[in-house]
Amino acid sequence: MSNSKKRFSDLVLEYSKAISSYLKGFPSILEDQRDKLEEIYSLLEKSRAVHIYGKGRSANAAVGLALRLKHFGYNVWFIGDVVKERIKKEDVVILFSGSGETSEVIDVAKRAKIERAKVVAITSYKDSNLAKNSDLILYLPGGIEKRKGWDYLEAQLASESASESIFYGGGEFETMAYLFQETLISAIGRYKKIPESKVMAEHERDEVVEE
Question: Of 117, 125, 142, 146, which has fewest CB within 10 angstroms of its CB?
Fold first, then answer.
């Protein structure tokens, strides 16, 4: 369809409505996984440390989750940081990968299993290599199916040939993943009755350190 008669803002509003409508189905995705949500919370509470990782756009959700959990007082490490802690038996490792086949993420899962840490996979494919190396799989739709062992760059190049979606050039899984981490964080904060003032103070302290 030609866009010659459309203003750019028309398309922005069109996509905003389409995506907003699509995301209304998000609660039903989690409704079917209540037991897994309970288990994720239990693992977070029992763990010595929480290690989180995602590659590329999935890293946005991973970093967001790591920062927010840190503000809640959890001992959290983002695996992509220069400074990180060794994964140990009492730890939980949360990994984001839509395809479940991003080689860098799978390598982390395998290393975590060797150390006997608990691995949580956030992925779209329950039969992926990431899922096979995980203790718990939380399903989110939208990941691009990839050949086994592809690294991040190869996968992104392949996504250009994916079928047309309201998420232009991909992005569905990453949107779902970020929405999930925001939902998870909000639930933890309310469930544990963590004062919002404490969270904001931690956020402001981090900003001062960064400056």
Answer: 142
